[in-house]
Specification:
alpha+beta, 631 residues, two-stranded antiparallel ribbon
């Protein structure tokens, strides 16, 4: 004997009281989460951001180190290219070593920057990839030119090598700066240090460009050209402007002693030592025309400590950034741990409170679970039905194609047999049998074609071929074909085409198929002595075709059934009217392909009227006759 479960005596009665109690407990839990969860989430985000900044700083330091290696590789390669003799093996080995060191630093840093998110990242990366590809092409050309004497090297290569490599460095710099400023945007100290880093890099780059011009002149054993002197003067002017800006930053709010010390150390080395030595080299070239007291490599060696002092500013800013980020990281870790502890306490309190209402919540949610399961079952059933329908369409299409081959052979042989029987004056019975075979074959062919069309409709593969269609001519053709198919129906078939009906833009074959299907249905389901009336005309600017009969008619439910593929209104095995149930579904599908609407009005015992209305865009209006001016 089954036992009906009873409600515990301590459980309050009434769904309203249960809902209010559950809502109050949920509100309490939400308040606890808002109190502790929001703080924990903010602390977690700050901690994650600090970790990301630390990772970025490490990657950026490698990236910048790689850029400096690229600058040195550019310098050594340019010196060797301007030398008169083929580059010595030691020089080539030195260039390759510098290039390998650049790749070791640059590529990991670039890979890390690719994973960062900042404004214009994709555009900057695309520009950088293009610049790097062009730089690799020039490096390969330079490697081949280094083993040749100066007079056999391509002048375009000598002229463009430094600008092309510089372009890749500039693109790299723009990417680094965009990522740098994006990572430091939320912290004033990091934003200040980012400006210092950028300024330090640009100072070193400008000084390096001046040194490269002098090194190229020494390697070519020629004085500095007028263009090189102009460039060097412009480089120094830019350095002077940036240096003044740097000193103002160092003296302003947020200044750091380490940065001021780096600026103080770099000033005499660059402005006094480097510029004096650079002026001496330029004067020596002007005085002798080709003789310099030192070679290009020695010039690079002597000038490196002086212009690399400018790097001390960037390195000092990088160390300050790392130290500041470490402090932020420690603080965020502490804040996160405290917030998580508070969140845990809050969750324990909430869990204890919610445990009291667990039974009530379970009762209320059980119904929702059952409804969800029912909805999922219904959804799965719908999906399975759609899959079965697609499988059916594919099966019908494949089977129809398989049937067409033997059917075409049957129809061909039946025609040959009929012709042979007629030539031999065979008995009328034999001729009748042959005619029956041909008629049955044609019926089967029409059915297979309809099945193929339905399959194409259901798989969205049926297409129309646009053409100019004479609706009146198409209607006359359809009437002749339908009359021939029902020669002894005893029905009255009348047509009416509006005079001056404009042509229709559409697929002529499919429009005729619409007409044939509508006429066939009307003739089939109209008993003698009924009437079938076909009209074609304009409704506004839209062409309409209507087929009306005085046949058996249908109820609204039967109209819906008749528009489904393979469905019969009369489902008895011994039904009176034959057919596969594809006529109206095909008409609706073909009309839809033309953007037309299908309207069916029917009543049992009164007949059926089907109207197809094409959109105005498919009405082809004749062009207006040109005006004739009378003099």
């Amino acid at each position: 004997m089954s036992r009906t479960p009873t409600t515990p005596p301590w459980l309050p009665s009434g769904s309203t009281l249960k809902s209010v109690l559950t809502a109050a407990l949920l509100i309490l839990f939400a308040l606890l989460l808002l109190a502790f969860g929001e703080q924990s989430l903010r602390a977690w985000r700050d901690d994650e951001r600090a970790d990301q900044i630390m990772v970025f700083d490490t990657a950026a330091n490698h990236f910048v180190a790689g850029l400096f290696d690229v600058l040195l590789e550019r310098l050594h390669t340019n010196n060797a290219l301007h030398g008169a003799e083929p580059a010595a093996p030691a020089i080539i080995e030195k260039i390759n070593a510098r290039r390998g060191q650049a790749n070791d630093n640059y590529q990991p840093g670039l890979a890390a920057l690719r994973n960062q998110q900042f404004p214009n990242r994709d555009t900057l990366l695309a520009q950088l990839d293009q610049a790097l590809a062009r730089a690799d092409e020039f490096r390969a050309a330079a490697d081949q030119a280094l083993v040749l004497p100066r007079d056999r090297r391509d002048d375009a290569l000598l002229q463009d090598f430094v600008p092309v490599i510089t372009q890749s460095v500039t693109a790299s710099l723009e990417l680094w700066l965009a990522a740098l400023h994006a990572s430091a945007a939320a912290d004033p100290t990091l934003a200040y240090l980012a400006v210092i880093k950028e300024t330090g890099w640009r100072l070193r780059e400008l000084a390096g460009l001046e040194r490269s011009n002098i090194a190229a002149a020494i390697a070519a054993a020629a004085p500095l050209s007028a263009a090189q002197k102009t460039e060097n003067a412009a480089y120094r002017a830019q350095v002077d402007i940036l240096w003044s800006h740097l000193e103002r930053l160092a003296a302003g709010p947020g200044n750091r002693p380490a940065i001021r010390a780096a600026i103080t150390a770099a000033r005499p080395l660059y402005f006094d030592d480097f510029r004096t030595l650079a002026d001496e080299m330029a004067q020596a070239g002007d005085a002798s025309g080709s003789h310099y007291p030192i070679d290009a490599d020695r010039w690079v060696e002597l000038s490196s400590p002086q212009i690399d002092a400018l790097l001390g500013v960037l390195h000092a800013a990088s160390r300050e950034s790392e130290a500041h980020t470490s402090v932020i990281d420690r603080e965020t870790h502490t804040t996160l741990a405290s917030a998580l502890s508070m969140l845990a306490v809050g969750c324990l309190i909430a869990a204890g409170t919610l445990a009291i209402a667990l039974y009530l919540v379970t009762l209320l949610t059980r119904r929702a679970e059952i409804q969800t399961q029912l909805a999922q079952k219904a959804e799965r059933a719908t999906v399975e039905a759609e899959q079965a329908n697609r499988a059916k369409s594919l099966f019908l299409a494949n089977m129809s194609h398989e049937l067409l081959t033997p059917l075409n052979a049957i129809m061909g042989f039946s025609e040959l047999i009929d012709r042979h029987l007629r030539e031999q004056n065979a008995p009328a019975a034999c001729l009748g049998y042959s005619k029956d075979v041909q008629s049955a074959s044609q019926v089967l062919l029409d059915l297979i074609n309809d099945v193929l069309d339905i399959a194409r409709v259901e798989t969205n593969s049926l297409r129309i071929q646009e053409d100019i269609v004479d609706v009146g001519a198409a209607l006359e053709w359809a009437v002749r074909v339908a009359t021939a198919a029902y020669p002894s129906s005893g029905l009255t078939l009348t047509t009416a085409t509006e005079p001056g009906l404009p042509p229709l833009v559409g697929d002529e074959r499919r429009i005729k198929q619409i007409l044939i299907n509508l006429l066939s249905n009307a003739l089939k389901f109209t008993p003698a002595p009924g009437c079938v009336h076909v009209t074609a005309g304009l409704a506004g600017d839209s062409i309409t075709i209507a087929v009306a009969d005085t046949g058996i008619g249908m109820t609204p439910q039967e109209v819906a059934i008749a528009q489904q593929p393979f469905q019969q209104v009369d489902r008895r095995l011994a039904r009176k009217y034959s057919g596969a149930g594809l006529g109206l579904p095909l008409v609706r599908a073909l009309a839809a392909l033309h953007g037309a609407t299908l309207d069916i009005q029917s009543a049992p015992g009164e007949g059926t009227r089907v109207r197809v209305t094409f959109p105005t865009a498919r009405t082809r209006r004749p062009a207006a006759a040109p005006l004739i001016r009378v003099a």
